[in-house]
């Protein structure tokens, strides 16, 4: 339980919440008493909601839906308003990987799929979240980018890197446009994080380039998201924060 910031009465939305980084952020919020609206395309998000609600004695509403659809973003904010009357935090986390390929071989449908989930969904969510946060007196939006949103990496895909760079730009512009309304908007840029989505990947290449000599965990990111939402980060706005064990310094 955090002793630094009072989160009582706060409400958060987390997308891509069923596993990995999203689930870790849900847990991090619940540990400090935040009520939650969580979503994923997987039905398992309902089980997570029950587990978190029981373990941490917080209210959790789960929605199984496709976050790449603008109506999903609207529904999430409506649930927050109807069930809790406010929205304080949002972690727009949902995303997928791409397929490394020469640009001439990149399928248009694959490009659009990654852009829709990794970028357009973030825009849809922010568009629905900002008005509700403004009514609540302000709030914090955290968008999940990547170290690939800060620089291209050998072996990454064109569509993934493009989407994650765009998330950083979107984040910074929202921070500038809405800071005076009491809304902070930051991007988190994880390095290689061990999750169900990355467990089959070769990690030796990354480990050799990480000064801390360990891979990141989902909890590393979840706790950082919570920290960026706290009053301890009240003057942090419009940043793209790398959480990578020093990987980008090598």
From TrEMBL:
<dbReference type="InterPro" id="IPR002347">
    <property type="entry name" value="SDR_fam"/>
</dbReference>
<dbReference type="GO" id="GO:0016491">
    <property type="term" value="F:oxidoreductase activity"/>
</dbReference>
<dbReference type="Pfam" id="PF13561">
    <property type="entry name" value="adh_short_C2"/>
</dbReference>
<keyword id="KW-0560">Oxidoreductase</keyword>
<protein>
    <submittedName>
        <fullName>SDR family oxidoreductase</fullName>
        <ecNumber>1.1.-.-</ecNumber>
    </submittedName>
</protein>
<comment type="similarity">
    <text>Belongs to the short-chain dehydrogenases/reductases (SDR) family.</text>
</comment>
<dbReference type="InterPro" id="IPR020904">
    <property type="entry name" value="Sc_DH/Rdtase_CS"/>
</dbReference>
<dbReference type="InterPro" id="IPR036291">
    <property type="entry name" value="NAD(P)-bd_dom_sf"/>
</dbReference>
<dbReference type="InterPro" id="IPR051122">
    <property type="entry name" value="SDR_DHRS6-like"/>
</dbReference>
């Amino acid at each position: 339980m955090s002793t630094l910031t009072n989160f009582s009465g706060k409400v958060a939305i987390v997308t891509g919440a069923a596993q990995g980084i999203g689930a870790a952020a849900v847990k991090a919020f619940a540990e400090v008493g935040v009520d939650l609206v969580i979503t994923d395309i997987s039905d398992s998000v309902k089980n997570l909601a029950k587990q978190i609600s029981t373990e941490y004695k917080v209210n959790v509403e789960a929605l199984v839906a496709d976050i790449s659809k603008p109506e999903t973003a609207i529904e999430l904010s409506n649930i927050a308003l109807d069930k809790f009357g406010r929205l304080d935090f949002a972690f727009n986390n949902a995303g997928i990987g791409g397929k490394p390929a020469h640009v001439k071989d990149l399928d248009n449908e694959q490009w659009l799929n990654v852009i829709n989930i990794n970028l357009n969904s973030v825009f849809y969510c922010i568009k629905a979240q900002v008005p509700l946060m403004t009514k609540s007196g302000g709030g914090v939006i955290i968008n999940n980018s990547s170290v690939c949103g800060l620089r291209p990496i050998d072996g990454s895909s064109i569509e993934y890197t493009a989407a994650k760079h765009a998330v950083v730009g979107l984040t910074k512009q929202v921070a500038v446009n809405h800071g005076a309304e009491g809304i902070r908007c930051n991007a988190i840029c994880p390095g290689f994080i061990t999750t169900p989505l990355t467990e089959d990947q070769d990690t030796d290449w990354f480990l050799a380039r990480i000064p801390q000599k360990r891979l990141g965990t989902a909890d590393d990111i979840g706790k950082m998201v919570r920290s960026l939402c706290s009053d301890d980060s009240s003057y942090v706005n419009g940043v793209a924060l790398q959480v990578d064990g020093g990987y980008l310094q090598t």
